[in-house]
Design brief:
The complex is a heterodimer of chains A (about 110) and B (about 120).
Chain A (H helix, E strand, L loop, with lengths): L8 E5 L4 E6 L8 E7 L6 E6 L4 E2 L4 E4 L5 E6 L8 E8 L14 E6 L1
Parallel strand pairs in A: 1-9
Antiparallel strand pairs in A: 2-7, 3-4, 3-8, 5-6, 6-7, 8-9
Chain B lengths: L3 E4 L2 E4 L5 E7 L5 E7 L6 E7 L2 E4 L7 E4 L5 E6 L8 E8 L10 E2 L3 E5 L1
Parallel strand pairs in B: 2-11
Antiparallel strand pairs in B: 1-3, 3-8, 4-5, 4-9, 5-6, 7-8, 9-10, 9-11
Classes of the chains: A mainly beta (about 110), B mainly beta (about 120).
Chain lengths: ~110, ~120
């Protein structure tokens, strides 16, 4: 079972920041938060991951709460091409924890 | 660019007729995965290879098999496809199973239709 909870859908205006929330209240100390997205009819694409510190790359920022029970993916200036399903995934290592197990994700629709 | 390539992009097969989907990678990653994604659902892991070691998910039907003849290639065989096997099949690779930085790289998928 997926260890995360995400809203099923969100809308965002083009050019504005898109903030996608994720709850992972049962996350354990050695588990990371990963974000992937899947544009229609394509394979999932890695966006970013983090453990406890906030992370930023050329695609997005990841804000993780101090208790690590939730996080937010931020797309600073959303474009129409960012319309996709965004998956928040908790992943560790060792045993079966290394597997990437997808939940239902959030369908982000960026509107002109 | 190093990548994961799946062929064919689209495949139509008849009910009960064996079909093979292929995946190749230029990343030299140790691990290769196969996911099944049905319409409007999340990808579901079928199995993976760590080098030559095959690891099946508990709920993967026996109808699904896989081969990995070398590091670069991995095949998904469906011995007797049913209508319910119509789905997108995604191949992914990762450098290792351990370590937080080892993300997955996905191919574009093969959309299989069973008629």
């Amino acid at each position: 079972d997926a260890k995360t909870t995400q809203p099923p859908s969100m809308d965002c205006a083009e050019g504005r920041a898109a903030n996608l929330p994720c709850n992972h209240s049962t996350i354990s100390g050695n588990e990371y938060v990963y974000w992937y997205r899947q544009i229609h009819s394509q394979g999932p694409q890695y966006i970013i991951h983090g453990l406890k510190n906030n992370e930023t790359n050329e695609m997005a920022s990841l804000i993780i709460t101090e208790d690590r029970k939730s996080s937010t993916l931020i797309l600073p200036h959303a474009t129409l091409r960012d319309t996709a399903v965004y998956y928040c995934i908790v992943r560790g290592w060792g045993g079966s924890n290394y597997k990437l197990t997808f939940g239902k994700g959030t369908l982000l629709t960026v509107n002109p | 660019d190093a990548m994961v390539i799946q062929n064919p992009r689209y495949q139509v097969t008849q009910f009960g007729k064996p079909v093979t989907l292929s995946c190749s990678q230029t990343l030299n990653h140790n691990v290769m995965y196969w996911y099944q994604q049905k319409s409007s659902q999340a990808p579901k892991l079928l199995f993976h290879y760590y080098d030559k070691d095959f690891n099946n998910e508990a709920d993967t039907p026996d109808n699904f098999q896989s081969r990995r003849p070398n590091t670069s290639f991995c095949f998904l065989d469906i011995r007797s496809p049913g209508l319910g096997d119509t789905a997108m099949y995604l191949c992914a690779t990762s450098r290792d199973t351990g370590g937080a930085g080892y993300g997955y790289t996905f191919g574009s998928g093969t959309r299989l239709t069973v008629v």
